[in-house]
């Protein structure tokens, strides 16, 4: 069995809003929205990868808060795990630096106004109150 490679996604929250990032690359993903993040490198803790990826992709100083229950398959051998995260005091505002061309802060009632990448949809659903998205829906 192939070893799974973890990709971390950040549910970056601020003032009740979630940050969504629009992909600019690769071409097959361009124009779709995702939770920012990336691959965990060998010997790296997922939480450390999350902090590093947010610094590289958005230029922010953020901290992981809590792991979102669940794990979602990506293209084998990758799996997506998501953490809620927040900006540290004094961090600059997020900027689309790498692989993204637009960022948007979304309130819960506007989450579905952007076309999320298929693999991010279940993770975004998991961020909402369980009573809104009961298991199996």
From TrEMBL:
Q: What are the required cofactors?
A: Mg(2+)
**Known catalysed reaction(s)?**
8-oxo-dGTP + H2O = 8-oxo-dGMP + diphosphate + H(+)
Keywords noted in UniProt:
DNA damage, DNA repair, DNA replication, Hydrolase, Magnesium, Metal-binding, Mutator protein
Instruction: State the superkingdom.
Output: Bacteria
Give start and end of each Nudix hydrolase domain. 3-134
| Transmembrane helix is among the record's keywords | no
Record-linked InterPro entries: MutT-like, Nudix_hydrolase, NUDIX_hydrolase-like_dom_sf, NUDIX_hydrolase_CS, NUDIX_hydrolase_dom
Q: List the EC numbers from the record.
A: 3.6.1.55
The record's section on Gene3D superfamilies has: Nucleoside Triphosphate Pyrophosphohydrolase (3.90.79.10)
- Biological process according to GO: DNA repair; DNA replication
Taken from the record, one Pfam family name reads: NUDIX
Record-level Gene Ontology MF annotations: 8-oxo-7,8-dihydrodeoxyguanosine triphosphate pyrophosphatase activity; 8-oxo-7,8-dihydroguanosine triphosphate pyrophosphatase activity; 8-oxo-dGDP phosphatase activity; 8-oxo-GDP phosphatase activity; metal ion binding
State what protein this is by name. Answer: 8-oxo-dGTP diphosphatase
Q: What is the lineage of its organism?
A: Bacteria, Bacillati, Actinomycetota, Actinomycetes, Kitasatosporales
């Amino acid at each position: 069995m192939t070893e799974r490679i973890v990709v971390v996604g950040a549910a970056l929250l601020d003032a009740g809003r979630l940050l969504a990032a629009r992909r600019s690359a690769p071409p097959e993903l361009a124009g779709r929205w995702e939770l920012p993040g990336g691959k965990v490198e060998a010997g790296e803790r997922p939480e450390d990868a999350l902090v590093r990826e947010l610094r590289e992709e958005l230029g922010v100083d953020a901290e992981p808060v809590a792991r979102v229950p669940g794990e979602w398959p990506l293209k084998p051998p990758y799996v997506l795990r998501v953490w809620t995260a927040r900006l540290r005091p004094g961090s600059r505002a997020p900027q689309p630096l790498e692989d993204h061309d637009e960022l948007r802060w979304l309130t819960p009632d506007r989450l579905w106004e952007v076309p999320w990448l298929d693999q991010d949809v279940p993770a975004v659903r998991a961020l909402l109150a369980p009573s809104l998205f009961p298991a199996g829906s």
